[in-house]
Specification:
14% strand; six-stranded mixed beta sheet; three-stranded mixed beta sheet; sigma factor activity; 42% helix; RNA polymerase sigma factor (Sigma-70 family); single chain; sigma factor; Nuclear Transport Factor 2, Chain: A; alpha+beta; DNA binding
Length: 402
């Protein structure tokens, strides 16, 4: 295969979609990149005759990447029990931030599409799901795979996958009753699911489903992808299932419910985004002025602030609840860090803040705003999670007064 081979372009064009899928499944861009790299390694490890026999390269890669993620999710639960403090998903900047040169350069294929399935509040709820629930929900409700396709990927029956997705939706509803963070945040912007063309076939089409997913639905039918991600997956393959019957051309590089595909939804989101941005701006001004009364005014009475330092830098180990306690904590932080510069930036598709000291990003703040007040604050300080934010000084902002 040469660099001018059209099939090479088709194969590499899957990268962005796989990054989008893996980030939503794992909540970590670095792990998502590792999963995609492992998926490509397995593809090229197949004999050429097996690769040529695969009808749907996109389906094959989706199956492999999803199974690697499923195993990683199972092992991540144990790892996060040993994590120092709270574990918060890795925050993502807007693609425009990199395009403008503010942040370190990256391949456009690695950029994650920002929509309702990527905001921090949504990702935090995904963290409460079992690995099987999360995979079934993301594949079906976000990327619009049928339950038959999901079943082939995770090694369960379509009925079992339907139940998993239903359980995941209940978690969303229970996490945020009476607010916009419910399944409507996803389903309201879902476009028609891509059509399929029948089962994928060929000697390289089958791969093993991870043992963490429960009973498999069929026997092994040939070699292909195993379910571990090299040294990172942490488990081995079990039963088997074929990849989904979806040609690569039938899937876009973004989730099927990307609001950008629906101008009406995009227009409706603008006023909400503007209101939320105004609340975050008021929060920044009050914090930098050390105006505790103004700060309390923009916080919900039941606001909760959670920090993530990963044991590498200082951060609150337990969530702080209540607007008076949160306000006092923030004022104390401002006093303890003179010269800290705050910038309003898009964080996971929502208005957020980036804190820098001496030109180095030291924290990224994500918010959940409802009813004109901030209900949740997530502060990511773990430097391992700030890679996408580490270069380029923030601008148009003044330092917090000392």
């Amino acid at each position: 295969m040469t660099v001018n081979d059209p099939s090479l372009h088709a194969i590499m064009s899957e990268r962005r979609r796989l990054i989008n899928l893996a980030y939503r499944l794992l909540g970590s861009l670095s792990e998502a990149e590792d999963v995609v790299q492992e998926t490509y390694l397995r593809w090229y490890a197949l004999p050429r005759t097996q690769r040529e026999a695969v009808e749907s390269v996109g389906g094959w890669m989706t199956t492999v990447a999803s199974r690697i993620c499923l195993n990683l999710l199972a092992s991540a639960r144990a790892r996060r029990e040993r994590y120092v403090g709270a574990w918060i998903p890795e925050p993502l900047p807007a693609p425009a931030e990199r395009a403008a040169g503010r942040l370190s350069g990256a391949d456009p294929a690695d950029q994650v599409t920002l929509d309702e399935s990527i905001n921090m509040a949504f990702l935090v709820v995904l963290e409460s799901m079992t690995p099987a629930e999360r995979v079934a929900f993301v594949l079906h409700d976000v990327f619009r795979y049928s339950f038959a396709e999901v079943a082939e990927i995770v090694g369960r029956t379509p009925a079992a996958c339907r139940q998993l997705a239903s359980s995941a939706r209940r978690r969303l509803r229970n996490a945020r009753p009476g607010t916009t963070l419910t399944t409507s945040a996803v389903s309201a912007t879902v476009s028609t699911a891509p059509t399929t063309t029948g089962p994928a076939t060929g000697p390289g089409a089958s791969s093993t489903a991870p043992t963490t997913t429960g009973p498999a639905t069929g026997p092994a039918t040939g070699p292909g992808a195993s379910s571990t991600a090299g040294s990172t997956a942490g488990s081995t393959a079990g039963s088997t299932a074929a990849p989904p019957a979806v040609p690569a051309a039938a899937r876009s590089n973004t989730p099927a419910h990307d609001p950008a595909h629906d101008p009406a939804n995009a227009r409706a989101a603008v006023p909400t985004a503007a209101r939320d941005a105004g609340v975050v701006a008021a929060f920044r001004r009050a914090w930098q002025a050390k105006d505790i009364a103004a700060l309390i005014a923009v916080l919900d009475p039941d606001v909760k602030a959670t920090g993530d330092g990963g044991g590498l830098v200082s951060a609150v180990l337990d969530p702080v609840e209540g607007r008076e306690r949160v306000a006092r904590l923030l004022i104390g932080l401002a006093a303890a860090a003179p010269g800290l510069t705050m910038a309003e930036r898009t964080v996971n598709g929502r208005p957020g803040l980036v804190a820098q000291h001496a030109g180095t990003t030291v924290a990224v703040y994500a918010f959940d705003v409802a009813g004109g007040r901030i209900r949740r604050i997530w502060v990511v300080r773990n430097p391992d999670k700030l890679r996408p934010w580490t270069t380029g000084a923030v601008t148009n902002d003044r330092p917090a007064p000392s």
